[in-house]
Amino acid sequence: MPEIAENRTIFSLLEVSRSIQKTIGERYKSLYWIKAEMNKLNYYSHSGHCFPELVEKTDGRIVAEMRSILWKADYQRINQQFLQLLNEPLKDGITILFRAAISYDPLYGLSLKIVDIDPTFVLGELEREKRESIQRLQEEGLFFRNKRLPFPTVAKRLAIISVETSKGLSDFFKIIHNNPWSYRFEYTLFPALLQGDKSIPSIINQLAVIAGRIEQFDAVAIIRGGGGEVGLSSYNNYQLAKAIAIFPIPVITGIGHSTNETVSELVAHKNAITPSELADFLIQRFHQFAIPVDEAQRRLIQASQALFQQESRLLDHLSQSISWHSKAVLSTHSHLLHTLTGRLQLVSRQRIRDQKNDLNSMVRLLQLADPKQLLKRGFSITRVNGQAISSEANVNIGDEVETILFNGSFRSRITDKNDLHE
Question: Under which EC number(s) is this enzyme classified (predicted)?
Answer without folding.
Answer: 3.1.11.6
